[in-house]
């Protein structure tokens, strides 16, 4: 069943009513994060029902030993796993001698969760009758601070309804946690110090093997009837857990409150010996501000994010809620401050998928971050890959490539490969092209060329070398071919001449050579350094150029389309429309061989290439390829519909564009794939943003300028979005009547609208 | 390093000198088996050095939970694993208060092992000086009885050399054993009863999940100076182990002997409640005969096997030893008495590879068993697959096939699939064709058609249905294609139109239809039963015929050869000769993607088809295909060289044929692949037999008659082999001078020699 229990609301995610079956799903949906850490919406108090506990620290991982059925040469020995971190949110609550546990109490009423996306906080409230007959109302509010990103804050309030009661709050820290996802039931954390002082406590622990040290800390404030108390806690310490007990006599109708500040300081950001001091300092700073003041800062910080990133939709609350949820989650996951971090496919909402970084970042997320943040953020994302270049070269060496050829991993945390299916790890090599494309895309959008001589060209050379070595010459075809690959459509494995891969390979080599020339001419110092480092010579460049020039592309004269791969036309070309619905999703219903020999496309493949290189094809060509491939596309990847949506819009097929848009925007909120309990689909959320801005809004970069072809689904009254373009913010408002632009900046901007040049002056509304 | 320490000998495998590094390899090489059970050459006495313990019972397996990195629909949940069974051979020995342990003693001299293949026994002898300074000589002789196939016998003799000593023999049974190969460290055996009585003891245990019950029993006889003693043992019993201690005062120069009869009775062959009685009875029978008499029976039984199966080579001791080792091991593994059993790739010599049955049986082993045993043996091997037909249909259903289509598993014990790599499990479907081919081959050789109406046709129909459904129609080619397969050459995965697979599919359908017609006309009762059971109708038959008729075969006009698969000519066609030796074996040096896009062939593929259907092609065609494919074949499967050897001989290239022959005949004896410690390559041993009989001897069946084209490697003086053909034994002797035939039988036989008809009368030597 789809879980569509979320109440429609423009700015909040709201759940009403308590259902144990929904707990794990809601734990994902109501997750909070601040780019540095994240927290699933687990209850603070004890819960003995089914739950999936998750606290995550950005950049902290564990190299779990690889598990495969049959080992193949080249597989990574270990791969980085997202780690469940020590629990800092726990607050056990005892009421009249009975432990509060929503799974075991007599009744729960008025249960409500709200994730306020506008202001960046999460609240849960309910009335509960315990088995001892006592009734209380509970309200818990929490957030992870954007300002102090090592701190989370919880305000947990209990108000007796039926009678005066004794309430015992036991805020605790617990490092005795486990991962749901572990290959060998390894223990991931080693705890080596627990201490407390007054209302504070901390635990020092480190990850096994990777030796990340973390100080998990807490500082509690206790209030009775909104007045601070000075009760001193009782302390319980075990091997991995420290608990502080506060006992309060609470009159009926009055409220007992614990405010708990907690969080992590980690050795990624501090010296190991300073972790405790740093933790104490930041918790002290938070507590001195107080919960409410810190929350005000939070609201303010989120308001600034929304100013740049919001998309407002008029006339469709569910669509509005959907797009804001996506934008909110992307910002909870990655804020671009730290080039060591990246955008995990589940963000801070679950453990599934080892590693944090896929080609999703380069192909889908960078456009979002470029347009909604300062351009340093996208540059940080590029730098992340630059920092992994050595590892990418090692990775290619494992597969037999030489001479500085680089193959970026399919999935990674620290630059090492985290995946181990040969058809993906060794063959889904198109990912390498996305790295070069992202550099190109960054330059095209920001106009900042400096990244290329400084860092980008080295990456491009490693990648061009890879393609040069990976292509082989077919005497039979008198062309270079690329054999044995998996394209973006992962429902084909080990195929020959995947059009997308071949096209990207050719383009990567050509773009690299073009930039070698430019850097040689215009940045001679950088050029010297790069040539010295890479040992790139004329002969190699010429050989590369030769591969690009003579690259083979499968093409059907009959259909006048590029073929997804050699032999595509040998398939039984039955369209998705003619496929019995009981057979879908095919990845759940069919064995792998059946999927492979079918014509069905998991995710845009040839069309992905048309999306990335739209300028190289006519609109008529796009239409023909769209008509050929769309009928076979099952969109069983969350990354697929956005590309089709953008192309349908470009082809003026707005109904279709809107249908594709709907498939992604509420994917998690309505739990289409019945798996939201495992976590959210973070990276595909950027695709939803693209569907609106690039699809409906028609945003492109043409001749160094912004270009729009605004369209609007007939279901909407209007929508607005903002674009940060070279340090000026352009606000775009599209309605059924027309489009208006408003520039926040200080210099005139020339844009194209439907191909026509428009001059926009700062702070002047222009309507078309 | 190759381990070529085995001494050349015509009839025995001999090792001299003790080397701890060789212990595990020798444990494999000196393994014994009697078709019902098997035993690695582990020491009877305690050994604390590196060892791989293995006792095996035919047909007893454990369904280990499947382990894969990423699950695919259709994988088997569990797969059958070869099980290490309770230890019955153990005899701890204490000499002068010190435990005998060759890993810890002061010195070992005159260490010698002999596996006497002519007579079917294994002996180990040595002199040892213990750390207490005492020197003794030890000799242990053991065999697994062919006559009483639930019994093994050991004669273990200790003779003090330096002084009189106290010797304590502790023969024991131990069910507390483990498997080297287990996915989840599961416990495989549950022991529920241990008992002793006088000189006998037994353990009852059962396998977890599969519930095979086994009674492991022993009966000991103690001798001093060759005289039976009546000392009564002390008994030690633990949870899984029962030990009997015998203490003897042995004068210098005299011999203390324990004769231990042991073995298994299992619930496959007895009622569960009768296991102990059956065990006691058979051990009593053995002990009443006595060790020597039982050994005489053993020699006699092996002599009968050799009478039919021996190949004698004159002028090359190592070749002689090699081929006899192969024939010996095949007979130790499978004797054809029980249609529930099959020929495991490691026989009873190791645990590697789950399951016992591969297409090796049908493609390589059946010819050996047909020619060297009564024809009921080959029929039993066919019946094994008939008994698994229901499971093969279920297996096909898991992959989406319907209506009684059958897909035999890649690897199996009980009919269920035991493998879990999608490119093998789901795609190496050519195995299915081998089942039909074996039926055809059996009929061709034995002339016994009765198997087809009784059992074979049902199997053929299930298989033909599979091919019918598995082929798809390519509008582009106007032909039926078979997409996404792995051929016999496993260095190509998920390829389209593997010539061998397509050819076999077409042939299976045609041969099935041919037999439907024949059975309809000649066996109307069987026909009725089969049609009723299979619900096969005219329409389906016609549709099948259509697929066969319009099957596509990739062909190169330029090279005038069938292509191994679509796109083969796109590869960089660098021959093995031009491949740097440091790159080989490629399966150890290269990552999987590199292997896949290379032209290198692991094992005969197109040529395998030419081998099976030789009659359908001219010698000129064979030569052309051989010349095209052989240069790309790396023979990294032990099953490959035999086919090339046979074809080289057919093409009169005897030097090449001999080179290929050498690659297999001593594969294990000389440990080419440095892995003999894991067990022997049993099934490929049948290929070595084929290389001589079908290759050098040129044996074929033509027009219902035996046909020969005898050739001889120039390195040999002569060779002889025997062929059981339709209940008469033809002895063939090939020398550099000519070939002679001698028929043991009672009716005249017409054979072809080099195409000419020859009449052979019984017991008349004919020389050509």
Automatic annotation (TrEMBL), chains A, B:
Domain Glycoside hydrolase family 65 central catalytic: start-end pairs: 324-690
Q: Which residues form the Glycoside hydrolase family 65 C-terminal domain?
A: 699-758
User: What GO biological process, any one, is recorded here?
Assistant: carbohydrate metabolic process
Q: Which residues bind substrate?
A: 359-360, 602-603
| Cited InterPro entries | 6-hairpin_glycosidase_sf, 6hp_glycosidase-like_sf, Gal_mutarotase_sf_dom, GH65_N, Glyco_hydro_65_C, Glyco_hydro_65_M, Glyco_hydro_65_N, Malt_Pase/Glycosyl_Hdrlase
Question: Where in the numbering of this chain does the Glycoside hydrolase family 65 N-terminal domain appear?
Answer: 14-267
State the source organism's domain of life.
Bacteria
A Pfam entry, by short name? Glyco_hydro_65m
Q: Which residues form the active site?
A: 490
Q: Which SUPFAM superfamilies match?
A: Galactose mutarotase-like (SSF74650), Six-hairpin glycosidases (SSF48208)
Instruction: Please give the Gene Ontology molecular function terms for this protein.
Output: carbohydrate binding; glycosyltransferase activity; hydrolase activity, hydrolyzing O-glycosyl compounds
PANTHER family found in the cross-reference section: GLYCOSYL HYDROLASE-RELATED (PTHR11051), MALTOSE PHOSPHORYLASE (PTHR11051:SF14)
Q: Which family does it belong to?
A: Belongs to the glycosyl hydrolase 65 family.
Task: Write down what this protein is called.
Answer: Maltose phosphorylase
Organism, by scientific name, is Aquimarina aggregata
């Amino acid at each position: 069943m789809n879980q569509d229990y979320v109440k429609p609301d423009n700015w909040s995610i709201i759940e009403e009513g308590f259902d144990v079956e929904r707990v794990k799903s809601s734990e994902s949906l109501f997750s909070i994060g601040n780019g540095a850490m994240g927290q699933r919406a687990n209850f603070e108090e004890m819960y003995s029902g089914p739950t999936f506990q998750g606290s995550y620290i950005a950049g902290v991982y564990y190299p779990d030993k690889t598990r495969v059925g049959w080992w193949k040469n080249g597989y990574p020995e270990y791969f980085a796993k997202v780690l469940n971190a020590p629990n800092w949110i726990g607050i056990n609550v005892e009421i009249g001698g009975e432990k509060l546990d929503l799974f075991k109490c007599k009744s729960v009423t008025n249960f409500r969760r709200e994730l306020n996306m506008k202001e960046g906080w999460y609240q849960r409230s309910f009335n509960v009758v315990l088995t001892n007959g006592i009734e209380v109302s509970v309200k818990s509010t929490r957030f992870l601070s954007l300002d102090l990103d090592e701190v989370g804050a919880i305000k947990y309030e209990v108000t007796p309804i039926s009678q005066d009661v004794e309430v015992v709050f036991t805020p605790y820290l617990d490092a005795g946690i486990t991962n749901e996802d572990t290959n060998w039931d390894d223990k991931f954390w080693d705890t080596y110090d627990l201490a407390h002082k007054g209302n504070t406590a901390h635990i020092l622990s480190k990850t096994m093997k990777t030796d990340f040290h973390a100080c998990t800390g807490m500082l509690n404030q206790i209030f009775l009837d909104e007045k601070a108390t000075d009760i001193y806690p009782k302390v319980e310490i075990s091997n991995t857990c420290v608990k502080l007990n506060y006992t309060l006599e609470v009159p009926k109708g009055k409220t007992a409150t614990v405010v708990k500040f907690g969080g992590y300081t980690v050795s990624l950001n501090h010296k190991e010996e300073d972790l405790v001091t740093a933790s104490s300092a930041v918790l002290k700073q938070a507590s001195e501000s107080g919960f409410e003041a810190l929350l005000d800062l939070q609201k303010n910080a989120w308001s600034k994010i929304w100013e740049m990133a919001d998309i407002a939709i008029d006339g469709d609350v569910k669509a509005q809620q959907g797009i804001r949820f996506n934008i909110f989650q992307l910002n909870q996951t990655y804020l671009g401050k730290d080039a060591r971090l990246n955008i995990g496919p589940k963000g801070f909402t679950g453990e599934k998928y080892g590693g944090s970084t896929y080609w999703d970042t380069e192909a889908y997320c960078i456009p979002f971050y470029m347009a909604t943040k300062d351009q340093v953020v996208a540059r940080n994302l590029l730098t992340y890959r630059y920092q992994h270049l050595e590892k990418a070269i090692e990775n290619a060496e494992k597969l037999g490539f030489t001479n500085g050829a680089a193959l970026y991993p399919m999935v990674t945390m620290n630059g090492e490969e985290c995946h181990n299916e040969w058809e993906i790890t060794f063959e889904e090599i198109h990912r390498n092209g996305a790295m070069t494309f992202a550099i190109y895309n960054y330059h095209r959008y920001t106009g900042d060329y400096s990244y290329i001589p400084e860092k980008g060209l080295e990456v491009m050379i490693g990648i061009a070398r890879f393609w040069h070595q990976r292509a082989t010459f077919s005497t039979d075809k008198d062309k270079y071919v690329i054999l044995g690959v998996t394209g973006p459509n992962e429902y084909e494995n080990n195929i020959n001449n995947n059009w997308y891969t071949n096209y990207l390979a050719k383009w990567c080599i050509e773009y690299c050579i073009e930039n070698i020339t430019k850097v040689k001419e215009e940045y001679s110092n950088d050029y010297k350094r790069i040539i010295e480092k890479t040992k790139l010579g004329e002969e190699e460049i010429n050989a590369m150029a030769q591969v690009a020039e003579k690259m083979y592309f499968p093409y059907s004269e009959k259909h006048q389309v590029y073929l997804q791969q050699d032999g595509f036309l040998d398939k039984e070309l039955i369209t998705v429309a003619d496929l019995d619905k009981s057979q879908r999703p095919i990845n759940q219903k069919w064995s792998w061989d059946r999927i492979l020999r079918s014509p069905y496309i998991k995710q845009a493949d040839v069309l992905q290439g048309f999306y990335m290189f739209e300028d190289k094809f006519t609109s008529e060509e796009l239409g023909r390829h769209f008509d050929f491939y769309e009928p076979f596309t099952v969109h069983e990847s969350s990354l697929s519909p956005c590309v089709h949506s953008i192309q349908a819009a470009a082809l003026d097929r707005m109904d279709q564009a809107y249908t594709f848009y709907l498939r992604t925007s509420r994917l998690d909120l309505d739990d289409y794939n019945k798996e939201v309990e495992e976590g959210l689909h973070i990276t595909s959320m950027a695709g939803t943003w693209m569907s609106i801005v690039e699809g409906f809004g028609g945003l492109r970069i043409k001749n160094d300028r912004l270009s729009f072809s605004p369209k609007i689904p007939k279901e909407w009254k209007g929508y607005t979005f903002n674009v940060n373009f070279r340090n000026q913010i352009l606000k775009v408002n599209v309605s059924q009547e027309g489009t208006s632009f408003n520039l926040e900046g200080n210099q005139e901007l020339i844009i194209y609208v439907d191909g026509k040049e428009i001059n926009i002056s700062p702070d002047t509304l222009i309507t078309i």
